[in-house]
Amino acid sequence: VKEGAIAILGGTGKEGQGLAIRWARAGRRVIAGSRLEEKGRRAAAEINAELGSTGVEGATNRDAARAGEVIVSTLPYDGHIQTLVELKDEFTGKMLITATLRWPPDLSGKPSAAEELNETLAGAVPVVAAFQTVSSGALRDAGRFEDVLVFADDAGIRQAAVAIVGETGLRGIEAGPLKASRVGEALTGLLLGINRIHRVHSAGIRITGLPDEGGT
Ligand SMILES: NC(=O)c1ccc[n+]([C@@H]2O[C@H](COP(=O)([O-])OP(=O)(O)OC[C@H]3O[C@@H](n4cnc5c(N)ncnc54)[C@H](OP(=O)(O)O)[C@@H]3O)[C@@H](O)[C@H]2O)c1
């Protein structure tokens, strides 16, 4: 089992559970956070039963944030900033990877959910945007391989996040500063349209022309 737990805030939802399964399968300790401790514990127990493991714990979002070395947010757009601002004292010295996107997705280039969050947190923690284009269905499909765009202002943080993303079995790709995450978010809107046209549920992306590592 790798060092350092990943805390997934809002980890009882579909996206959080999909990520928890992938990181737990890779040997990471995962703490699924919830507004209700009991709900977090129940979600963790379900994942452990599915995986035949004990690697996932459930907790309140605050306890998860305190215990986690890496913080991941799969909170809904409505309420994510408020929740994370309340918890920001627990983030010192960590990184915050947010999968949240503006809902409904915006195709006209408004600041992304991650940019809004970063502005509000005002440097309390480095903010990384990742997984916006990755559907919960793709996360639950163990055979699925797709790319994950990783946005952050600091190149060192971005590279560290790419490594953590890579543990899911998907390929993290450094995709630029946080400002560029509005393009990633718009891309997600496009993918939802592609889902509708092609009558599928989890279209994703792959970037071609990169060396296998993808991260640099
Ligand atoms: N689903 C996807 O395919 C997908 C793909 C890419 C990105 N995303 C993004 O990932 C995030 C999570 O998606 P999801 O489908 O898993 O969402 P979700 O199930 O609606 O929400 C995740 C969890 O957030 C908590 N929550 C709900 N309302 C809240 C509020 N007002 N304040 C604080 N916590 C609240 C709930 O946990 P508790 O009740 O246990 O607290 C819920 O289980 C969203 O921002 C979404 O845009 C989703």
Task: Draw up the topology in text.
Blueprint: E1 6-9, H1 14-25, E2 30-34, H2 37-51, E3 56-60, H3 61-67, E4 70-73, H4 77-86, E5 95-98, H5 113-121, E6 127-129, H6 136-140, E7 147-151, H7 155-166, E8 171-176, H8 181-198
Helix pairs in contact: 1-2, 4-5
The protein binds NADP nicotinamide-adenine-dinucleotide phosphate.
NADP nicotinamide-adenine-dinucleotide phosphate is lined by residues 10, 12-16, 34-36, 39, 74-79, 83, 99-101, 103, 131-132, 134-136.
Explained architecture:
The chain is built from eight helices and eight strands; from the N terminus they run βαβαβαβαβαβαβαβα. It is an alpha/beta fold and 216 residues long. Helix 1 crosses helix 2 and helix 4 packs parallel to helix 5. Helix 5 links the parallel strand 5 (95-98) and strand 6 (127-129). The strands form two sheets. Strands 3-2-1-4-5-6 form a six-stranded parallel sheet, with helices on both faces. Helix content is 41%, strand content 17%. The protein binds NADP nicotinamide-adenine-dinucleotide phosphate.
Task: Please give the number of β-strands.
Answer: 8
Helix content: 40-55%
Shape call: globular
What is the C-alpha radius of gyration, as a whole number of Å?
16 Å
Class per helix and strand makeup: alpha/beta
Mean pLDDT, to the nearest integer, reads 95
Going across the biggest sheet, name each strand in turn. 3-2-1-4-5-6
Give the ligands present: NADP nicotinamide-adenine-dinucleotide phosphate
Which stretches are low in confidence, meaning pLDDT under 50 for 5 or more residues running? none
How far do the termini sit from each other? 26 Å
Major sheet details: 6 strands, parallel
- SSE string, helices as H and strands as E: EHEHEHEHEHEHEHEH
| Alpha plus pi helix count | 8
Q: Proportion of β residues?
A: 15-25%
